[in-house]
Design goal:
The protein has 434 residues and is α/β, with parallel strands linked by helices. 37% of the residues lie in helices and 23% in strands. It starts with a strand and ends in a 5-residue tail after the last strand.
Length: 434
């Protein structure tokens, strides 16, 4: 099997290492040798340093996707620009494609799957979600006998590291982010990570293979952690919760919700104790119940492990003369159907609210009456003791389950009270127990 590798950066270098150093192990599992015939990267010096053999290197990736001798293309440059054109060309030229490009699959998955099927080749993308954790295979294959009910995951290591540092070391978001950048966990421009876009790409893909819906990134609700304050992390701890950037997708009888946002999780849940740059995904099947998948969500070798696993799958299928034996998106083509995607206002959650109010007699009664008028109960409320001459201490509370639209109406009424001093902080809660 002749392979062309596009992109020799962190993951590309790791992939080259896994394919070469584990070549004997891979041969034992496939019965076919895998030859890295060509490598493409704009940085020829870096490519030469990794690959060694100048004759295998090109700075034009189209040399690989148009090479008639290449059987399989590994795309590891990312983005949805030139990467999309390269993958489309490779598939049109009847080459199998393995990619770690979550943005590409989340935004153009439908058309790429159709192109692969038309040309009777395989498009594989395990490394696009949760790095070294084989979560795509787990949902699509290991849990195929189940009707998936919901998925909730910590699938961005950068934000999980930042939140862990904010909680454990009492750091502000800005300080924790700078530390993450210094350690290489965050990019110089961390926007995609800290604003939740990266996690939203990944959960969009999982929603499709879990529920048999078209890949639809535009339907996801996305909220990041950049506005999160350290005091809310501390208050959540007092209530028995930890705050994580959680990617969530749930199936309803006639609709699906896809969302990413900071979330309070009970500290007794295993997923609440996933710290640092690690990832974890919780999947609830109707027969198996909740299953948890944990591991490194990024990094050269963990991600390369998932890339090469896809290569091995394709080699095995080709050896036996098969095309794609497993539907690319988990469901047969005729059973992938559009469903209504709930807006965030239609989603039901419990909520943590933090109020900044002037301390006046009758205030708490006024607040509880507003909730009662909407039929929403307060499950817990803390009125912080007056400390350091602060005459207007914070109030924070936990609500019963309620639609977001209703909680927004409650917030609007409380903010209109004369005692109100600032915008109310709202963070959703997921119990993850049903």
């Amino acid at each position: 099997m002749k392979v062309g590798l596009i992109g020799i950066g962190t993951v590309g270098g790791g992939t080259y290492k896994v394919l070469t150093e584990n070549a004997k192990e891979i041969l034992k599992k496939t019965g076919i040798s895998i030859d890295i015939a060509r490598v493409a990267d704009k940085n020829l010096a870096l490519a030469k340093k990794v690959v060694g053999d100048e004759n295998k290197i090109t700075d034009d990736a189209f040399d690989i996707v148009n090479d008639k001798e290449i059987d399989l293309v590994i795309e590891l440059i990312g983005g949805t620009g030139i990467a999309k054109e390269l993958v489309e060309t490779a598939l049109a030229n009847k080459k199998h494609v393995v990619t770690a490009n979550k943005a590409l699959i989340a935004m153009h998955g439908e058309e790429l799957v159709e192109l692969a099927e038309k040309n009777k080749v395989i498009l594989a993308y395990e490394a696009s979600v949760a790095g070294g954790i084989p979560i795509i295979k787990a949902i699509r294959e290991g849990l195929a006998a189940n009707q998936i009910e919901w998925i909730a995951g910590i699938i961005n290591g950068t934000t999980n590291y930042i939140l862990s540092e904010m909680r454990e070391n009492n750091l502000t978001f800005d300080v924790a982010l700078k530390q993450a950048q210094e350690l290489g966990y965050a990019e110089a421009d961390p926007t995609f990570d800290v604003e939740g876009v990266d996690a939203a790409h990944k959960v969009t893909i999982m929603a499709s293979i879990a529920f048999g819906i078209p890949v639809n990134f535009e339907g996801a609700y996305v909220e990041g952690i950049s506005q999160l304050q350290q005091k809310d992390i501390a208050y959540a701890e007092e209530l028995g919760y930890r705050i994580k950037l959680l990617a969530i997708t749930k199936a309803h009888s006639d609709a699906v919700e896809i969302r990413v946002h900071p979330t309070l999780i009970p500290e007794k849940r295993l997923v609440a104790n996933v710290n640092g740059p690690m990832n974890a995904v919780l999947v609830k099947g109707n027969m198996v119940g909740p299953t948890l998948y944990y591991g490194a969500g990024a990094g050269a070798e963990p991600t390369a492990s998932a890339v090469v696993a896809d290569v091995i799958d394709i080699v095995r299928q080709c050896k036996h003369g098969h095309g794609a034996m497993i539907p690319t998106l988990g469901f047969t083509k005729e059973n992938i159907k559009k469903k209504k995607l709930l807006t965030i206002e239609e989603v039901e959650s419990e909520f943590y609210l933090r109020l900044s109010m002037k301390n006046k007699t009758g205030l708490l009664a006024n607040i509880t009456n507003i909730f009662a008028d909407k039929g929403v109960s307060i499950d817990a409320m803390v009125h912080k003791e007056i400390q350091d001459n602060n005459l207007d201490p914070d109030i924070f509370l936990v609500t019963s389950k309620v639609k977001e639209q209703t909680i927004n109406e409650i917030i609007s009424k409380i903010e209109s009270l004369p005692e109100n001093k600032d915008k109310i902080i709202k963070i959703r809660i997921e119990e993850l127990n049903k």
